[in-house]
Write a structure and sequence with these properties.
- The complex is a heterodimer of chains A (228) and B (264).
- Chain A has 228 residues and is an alpha/beta fold.
- Chain A is built from 5 helices and 15 strands.
- The two termini of chain A are 41 Å apart.
- With 264 residues, chain B is an alpha/beta fold.
- Chain B has one domain: Rossmann fold (3-Layer(aba) Sandwich).
- Chain B is built from 12 helices and 8 strands.
- In chain B, strand 6, helix 7 and strand 7 form a beta-alpha-beta unit.
- In chain B, helix 1 packs across helix 11 and helix 5 packs parallel to helix 6.
- Classes of the chains: A alpha/beta (228), B alpha/beta (264).
- The complex binds adenosine-5'-triphosphate and magnesium ion.
- Adenosine-5'-triphosphate (ATP) binds next to helix 1, strand 7 and helix 10 of chain B.
- Chain A: Interacts with MinD and FtsZ.
- Chain A: Belongs to the MinC family.
């Protein structure tokens, strides 16, 4: 007796299709079944592109396998993959995540010409002097004066932000956004943070108090978990 | 065993050589045995400010390359028995001096002298590396200008990575009181706060300084000028005395920032 559990289950939702891929079948089997299933459903003419979420369960796919799977699903331009979710990640990736999500505490003055760079969030206890630079893949918190350049989210995290007890920076950078100090002599600000405002599509400086509304998840690790 | 102090700044022309000559002279006035070293190869001028140029026979490069003994290259000051100068070479071959060579010279001089004052060239290249190589302590000179303070900050960062007895100390040179009052010059407090190192002295901008330099007589030899008193006070602080900052300084009330310097 053999219980034939389907290798692929398709569910339709309002937002598109969800493809559940059985954890126990071999990858070869899955690819073959997938091709069959897709061919079976003959497309109507002028059908809009459907968005697809692939749920892998406890299966881990290599980069190459993911590519293969994507190739088959998107081949006839009828589907577009929105996400491929797996409940497992390799230890190596987990370690990188952990690295990137730790809060690194540094106690020093970052002087002119010096660069301080960390993975994850950076808590600097000390000043960043003019000509000094701090860089982090996550958020930057400065308990001191930010007078040089701070770059948060250096690997592209647009949710990252920069907070300082006092800031009069030469530049603030978040992900690929850059803002610089005005050309006129301006006073610095106390207890403020720099954050990307998606509406204005630029970095804005706001009171630290507003952070709780705009960045609910402050920890870099949770951000990773949520955004993958 | 003596102590070697390097006088450095990053930016050029802010007063390293003037400071070296005057600290050296002031220490000699207090009966200390002092040797000045000019490490500005190719642009020597400590000998000129000390008025000793015409006595030079050998220089630091001759010593390092073995053309003479260290003792032969030392020039004795006209005024003090125990104030000597090891002059820089006028050659343009800056690679003639190495950090190793400097360390050897400094440690040999420390056997005989109480203080070795090393005048550093501008910049952060090899000449700077050589000058700080043998030093136990550093004094950073800045003027109250943004660019000069910025370079001082850079230099402090580099010195902090070296193996010195303690963080460098700061001299703010060429202060013009009225400009500072009007806010046209950086404030002393702001400079000290930014650089976050202890202040060992401040020196006014003084025309007499230029006259003295031209005469080859360090201003600290004549007790009547403000700048002279400033240098003497710096020397006393080097010896570990607690000396309050003088009048030009008192108005600001940052005396507490000057800590007993070089306490042994
Ligand atoms: N407090 C002062 N008041 C007036 N003039 C000064 C003062 N300090 C230095 N000077 C003048 O500034 C000029 C530069 O000084 P000095 O040669 O000591 O600087 P430096 O830092 O050694 O320069 P370099 O980097 O070229 O070696 C000289 O002409 C000197 O007389
Ligand atoms: Mg000089």
């Amino acid at each position: 007796m053999q219980e034939t559990k389907p290798t692929i289950t398709i569910k339709g939702t309002r937002d598109g299709l969800i493809l559940f891929i059985d954890e126990n079948s071999s990858f070869e089997e899955i690819l073959q079944d997938l091709i069959k299933k897709l061919d079976a459903s003959t497309p109507q003419k002028e059908e809009p592109v459907v968005s697809v979420k692939v749920k892998l369960g406890h299966r881990y796919l290599t980069e190459e396998q993911r590519h293969q799977l994507k190739g088959i699903i998107e081949e006839k331009n009828r589907f577009q993959i929105e996400a491929m979710e797996s409940d497992v990640i390799p230890i190596k990736d987990a370690k990188t995540w952990l690295d990137e999500s730790q809060l690194k505490v540094v106690n020093q003055i970052v002087r002119s010409g010096q660069v301080l760079e960390t993975k994850g969030d950076l808590l600097l206890i000390g000043d960043v002097n003019p000509g000094g630079r701090v860089r982090a893949s996550g958020n930057i918190y400065i308990m001191g004066n930010l007078l040089g350049i701070a770059h948060a989210g250096i690997e592209g995290d647009q949710e990252a932000f920069i907070a300082a007890s006092y800031m009069k920076p030469a530049q603030l950078r978040i992900a690929e956004y850059i803002s610089r100090a005005p050309d006129y002599e301006a006073d610095g600000v106390y207890m403020e943070c720099g954050i990307i405002d998606p509406d204005q599509n630029k970095i804005v400086i706001d009171s630290i108090k507003t952070l709780s509304k705009q960045r609910k998840v402050i920890s870099a690790f949770e951000r990773r978990m949520n955004n993958g | 065993m003596g102590e070697a102090i390097v006088i450095t700044s990053g930016k050029g022309g802010v007063g390293k050589t003037t400071t070296s000559a005057n600290i050296g002279t002031s220490l000699a006035l207090m009966d200390k045995k002092v040797c000045l070293i000019d490490t500005d190869i190719g642009l020597r001028n400590l000998d000129v400010i000390m008025g000793l140029e015409n006595r030079i026979i050998y220089d630091i490069v001759d010593v390092i390359q073995g053309r003479c003994k260290l003792q032969q290259a030392l020039i004795k000051d006209k005024r003090f028995d125990y104030l000597s100068l090891l002059p820089a070479a006028q050659t343009s071959d800056k690679s003639a001096v190495t950090t190793e060579g400097m360390k050897e010279i400094v440690s040999e001089l420390k056997q005989e002298y109480d203080y070795i004052i090393i005048d550093c060239p501008a910049g952060i290249e090899q000449g700077f590396q050589n000058a700080i190589a043998g030093a136990d302590r550093a004094i950073v000179v800045t003027t109250p200008e943004n660019s000069s303070v910025r370079d001082a900050d850079r230099i402090i960062g580099l010195i902090e990575k070296e193996d010195m007895i303690e963080p460098p100390r700061l001299i703010i040179n060429r202060i013009r009181n009225h400009m500072m009052k009007n806010g046209d010059m950086l404030d002393i407090d702001d400079i000290v706060q930014l650089l976050a190192i202890d202040l060992i002295g401040i020196v006014a901008d003084d025309e007499e300084m230029i006259k003295a330099a031209n005469k080859g007589e360090p201003i600290s030899l004549s007790p009547n000028f403000k700048a002279s008193i400033s240098y003497r006070n710096i020397a006393r602080r080097i010896l570990g005395e607690t000396v309050p900052l003088q009048s030009l300084e008192e108005e600001k009330g940052f005396m507490q920032k000057v800590k007993a310097f070089f306490k042994i």
